[in-house]
Design goal:
The chain is mainly α. The chain has a single domain, classed as Up-down Bundle (AhpD-like). Helix content is 74%, strand content 0%. It contains 9 helices and no strands. α3 packs parallel to α9, α5 packs across α7 and α7 crosses α9. The longest helix is centred in the C-terminal third of the chain and has 33 residues. The chain is globular. The relative contact order is 0.17. It is an enzyme of class 1 (oxidoreductase). It comes from Acidipila rosea. One of its GO terms (molecular function) is disulfide oxidoreductase activity. Belongs to the AhpD family. This is Alkyl hydroperoxide reductase AhpD.
Length: 183
């Protein structure tokens, strides 16, 4: 399904999601097209909502090269792993874990083949969705050092939040529809 159809089909209780998506995507002033569609792609992947991910990846492929789209998917994948690992560090009261090596391969952090700032912004978006404070702090610091403004950072996080909310609505409606069938 095309992303616009998916957004237009959101239920009445999700009107804010529909309006926010429209405003943030269609009236975007802060992000380049690559940053915008890369952020939408990584955020959709991070929601784990298949319907939303398929629709956004389909549309993103019209705005991004395959290399950039693969870079965005790589950011979502590596942060899916890192957010769990480093959120554990953050939440555990045992300080020894912070001194121990991760022993997790993270080569894609250097070999992604896309603009370094964009990859870091996408990593930040996924970290926000996954709620990893340690990764949020780390990636926010890097993007700020690379010259990103706070407005740019917040634009990425806004997009991540609205995509996550849309994924929640779509999953809720799918479950509700399945319950109606089984009743």
């Amino acid at each position: 399904m095309h992303i616009d159809q998916l957004i237009d089909g959101l239920p009445a209780y999700a009107k804010d999601m529909k309006l926010n998506y429209s405003t943030l995507v269609r009236q975007n002033a802060e992000l380049s097209e690559q940053q915008l569609w890369g952020t939408l792609a990584v955020s959709a992947v991070a929601t784990r909502c298949g319907e939303l991910t398929a629709a956004i990846l389909e549309e993103a492929s019209k705005h991004l090269t395959q290399q950039v789209l693969d870079g965005a998917k790589a950011a979502a994948a590596i942060m899916g792993m890192n957010n769990i690992f480093y959120r554990f560090h953050h939440l555990s009261s045992n300080e020894k874990y912070g001194t121990m090596p991760a022993r997790l391969r993270m080569n894609v952090m250097r070999t992604h083949g896309v603009d370094a700032l964009d990859f870091e912004l996408w990593s930040l978006a996924v970290s926000a969705i996954n709620g990893c404070g340690k990764c949020i702090d780390s990636h926010e610091k890097v993007v700020r050092e690379k010259g990103a403004s706070e407005d740019l950072v917040l634009a990425v996080v806004r997009l991540a939040s609205i995509v996550h909310a849309i994924g929640t609505v779509l999953d809720t409606e799918r479950v509700a529809a399945q319950q109606e069938v089984t009743i």
